[in-house]
Amino acid sequence: MEWNQKKILILGANGGIGSAIARQLSQQSAIIYGTYRRMKPKDAIWNQNHLYDLDFELNLNEIQSKIKDILSSNDIDMVIIAAGSAYFGNFSKMDTKDIQHTYQVDLIAPIIIAQSVLQFFLEKGEGHLHIVAAIAGLLPAVKNMAVYTSSKFGLVGFVRALAMETIGTQVRVSVSCPSGVITELPENALGDKEAFLKVIEVLKKNFESADDVAKGILEGLSSRDVLNLPTEKARALAKKL
After folding, report:
1. What pTM was computed for the model?
2. Domains, the chain, ranges and CATH?
3. C-alpha distance from residue 3 to each of 6, 193, 236 (Å)
């Protein structure tokens, strides 16, 4: 895909996969816009005027309003949602506020954002929305992550269904499901963080770098596939379905 001068908005640009995608796109002369939570990304690739503070825990109407402003004021060509959170712990002991937080950040906010993005692209006549989910959206991956896993299943199902609504238009929607990725997600997880870090320590030998996953995602965006398995490891895991 030709990225030169394409205007790409990356939600969740200050870490992990979102940051890796931004770096790789900047090397291909795309114009990158990004959202962050709490701390602005400090990479030299960023034009600080292209960064926006956006917390997925905000009131949904406020999130929608902010997204619409960013899209319209910058005439965005593509939106990549790469933000998310995780909760590790026994579901029977989860506090309702943690359940609500996980679904809001990992499922409901992305869906609300997708609605605004779709409206904007349909009016514009073209555009591409891509959501980064996880292999957990295709198969239960880790014990004690029932709510997180179900939110990823929801994202994958949502995008695959939404793709039916864009048939006959120049608007595309797609979703990627990476396998385990080395990011700061475990350190920022809610719940029993100590136990989660121990699990990650055992599993991380099979994890992939954010740069490798980002490369696979970007390569997949040039295809017409709605579901993107960005690496060989992700494709091998999906074959177990």
Report:
1. 0.95
2. 7-238 (3.40.50.720)
3. 5, 39, 29
